[in-house]
Amino acid sequence: MQCLAQPPECASVDVVDAQRILLVDDEPAITESLAFALSRAGFETRAARTLAEANAALASSAFDLVVLDLTLPDGFGLDWLRALRARSRLPVIILSSHDDATDHIVGLEVGADDYVDKPFSPREVAARARAVLRRTAGAGGPAAAEGPSLAIDLGARAVTALGASLALSKTEFDLLAVLSQSPGHVFDRDALLERVWGSVAVTERSVDAFIKTLRRKLADAGLPPETIETVRGVGYRLSRDVVQARGGSAA
Asked: Under CATH, which architecture does the 20-136 domain have?
């Protein structure tokens, strides 16, 4: 295998037809640690320290995924992503030192496939890269287990998908818990805002962004895309076929 990044940004690994990842970040320590972890996971990598270098790399080579920092010397990563989305569905994972929820929401709405806060574990980014590529390539998840595919213990605030524990943030769990109380029932955004966020001032766009991240995690766990269904112009509902909720209260 030929590694696109130059040492020490890349470690050699024997892989045939490895998927290629473009790392867009102006900090060499970050691109080097990511390149090492990603090459150990079987990926080829190439580093770009500016958005101009990223554009040149995409123009000259094919990539399967971009890992994108938001703050680059020659521009803002979200503006670059917005322009990319006008012409391509190339998967993108955002890296950012901005931990504000608004930045996450905007990034997902612009078209990011995942969002990782700095500081991070390079191995976690490699795992997320595999998950994003599996999802965007349409690869099937694990076979469905007998019985409910999604089990929610409201009292213990625990979720399992296809028998495996699923890690959710507090807001993601609260949102799933509300939907699970009436599988098949359509909750409009106002109802979800009231029951999940209460008096906290957020917009309907927050609901959409958290639904998107929740769907991603469910899909990564092997559940079908229709686990959370969109009812156009109304809201969202949880499929009756996959969920079992027990104990406690969602509100």
From this structure: 3-Layer(aba) Sandwich (3.40)
